[in-house]
Amino acid sequence: MEFDLREYDAFRDEVVAYCKQKWPPDGLAPPYRAGRRAEAAFWEEAAQCQRELGERGWLTGAWPVEYGGGGWPKVKQALFNELAAYHRIRGTGNANLGVSTIGPTIMLYGSEEQKREFLPKIARGEIRWSQGYSEPDAGSDLASLRTRAVADGDDFILNGAKVWNHSQHADYIFLLARTDPDAPKHRGITQFILPRHTPGVTVQPILDAYGQERWTLLTLEDVRLPRTMVVGEVNRGWYQTVTSLDFERSQMAWVGQGRRLLMDLIAFLKTKTRQGRPVLADPFVRDQIGDLLVCLEMARWLGYRIAYLQDQGKVPNAEASMSKVFATETQQRIERLGVNLLGPLGLLSAGSPWAEQDGLWDESYWSAPGTTLAGGTSEIQRNIIATRGLGLPR
Ligand SMILES: Cc1cc2nc3c(=O)[nH]c(=O)nc-3n(C[C@H](O)[C@H](O)[C@H](O)COP(=O)(O)OP(=O)(O)OC[C@H]3O[C@@H](n4cnc5c(N)ncnc54)[C@H](O)[C@@H]3O)c2cc1C
């Protein structure tokens, strides 16, 4: 691996200056301030940021120029994603599936018409997507999905249910459905683009542990979709999906978010005393923080390695799994340490007069378990590392 981030120093300064004027000087972004049920505000903010970043050409800087990108090296995009996440800028990284996975999938497998229709809109930050992969009975074993798409002339008729998506705020759903029930399970799946407001589509909110309507259950009842909405080849969707999940796993957002949390914790602990001594002076605390800083640095380089490999024209696979496991598990360790050190007051929500750091830790702690599940659990990533990375038998 060989690249030099100093090349982008001027760009880094420009991004940091933009980020700093976005939020108030103490740096805590609005959703934390709003506390529980701030979900609508989050997505509204994300949509607005997405458009602004699109106008600046930062959203899809590493996309080819012909598709509305800036032709940057992926390493530069990774730097941007890391900085944006650190500064809690919405509309990038995990909050923008169009940029991170769906756009690149359309680039690889979509028709010319789909590329013309969707890619410039994603680059300009004009449309929002959700990912309709998981089903009530198909998560880790995604290929066992049961949503059916049956050919009917120039259309497909879709029936089924998709869970754990963000379809309440999406314009389009990038969907997997079974098109050949008789084929072996990996071979009968197709990717579709479904406009959210198609007749027969119902979106119901799911309340999460934090009390927010963050997720949705999507049901499809005789939904008619033209063949032009098939992405790539019919029945080859599984293989296309495997590639697009690797895009998702190579994000730098976890690293930026984790570092920000840890920096917020350090800033707070500097002001906090216990039995007359600053908490940060405690060698046990310092040891744990030092360890996490090292882990974050490792997660950072695992993430940049993905970008570097992509710049070399390679498709990272086990490397993407390593990056995802390490970054998300490090983030969970930071959240756990923060809540442990803050004590019971750390679990109060924004709005409570006793909430530490405006309820930041309450929200992030409740969201923490999801990071090692979303996009494929840590166990599944470790299976990939073992089999595809280390060549171990199944
Ligand atoms: C925050 C979050 C965001 C998400 N976003 C989306 C989204 O946008 N779109 C979407 O379609 N889905 C989304 N999901 C769903 C996610 O992809 C699934 O939750 C995940 O793949 C696990 O599936 P499951 O929940 O059905 O668990 P299961 O597959 O039932 O797994 C249960 C447990 O068994 C373990 N396990 C299962 N199989 C194996 C195995 N072969 N080896 C070892 N251990 C195994 C798992 O690791 C897990 O611990 C999201 C989930 C979360 C939490």
Protein described:
The protein is built from 12 helices and 10 strands. It is of the alpha+beta class. It has 3 domains: 124 residues, Acyl-CoA dehydrogenase/oxidase, N-terminal domain (Butyryl-Coa Dehydrogenase, subunit A, domain 1, Orthogonal Bundle), CATH 1.10.540.10; 107 residues, Butyryl-CoA Dehydrogenase, subunit A, domain 2 (Beta Barrel), CATH 2.40.110.10; 148 residues, Butyryl-CoA Dehydrogenase, subunit A, domain 3, CATH 1.20.140.10. The strands form 3 sheets. Strands 1-4-5-8 form a 4-stranded mixed beta sheet. It has a 4-stranded antiparallel beta sheet with strand order 2-3-7-6, with no helix packed on it. A hairpin with a 2-residue loop joins strand 2 and strand 3. It is globular, with a radius of gyration of 21 Å. Bound molecules: flavin-adenine dinucleotide.
Mean pLDDT: 91
Query: Which outline best applies?
Result: globular
Radius of gyration: 21 Å
Give the distance, in angstroms, between the N- and C-terminal Cα atoms.
Answer: 30 Å
CATH architecture of the largest domain: Up-down Bundle
Taking strands numbered 1, 2, ... along the chain, how are they ordered across the largest sheet? 1-4-5-8
Which CATH top level class of the largest domain fits?
Mainly Alpha
Poorly predicted sequence stretches spanning 5 or more consecutive residues: none
CATH superfamily of the largest domain: Butyryl-CoA Dehydrogenase, subunit A, domain 3
* Named CATH topology of the largest domain: Butyryl-CoA Dehydrogenase, subunit A, domain 3
Question: Please, how many helices?
Answer: 12
Strand content: 5-15%
Small ligands present:
flavin-adenine dinucleotide
Number of domains: 3
Tell me about the biggest sheet?
Answer: 4 strands, mixed
Can you count the beta strands?
10
Order of helices and strands: HHHHHHEEEEEEEEHHEEHHHH
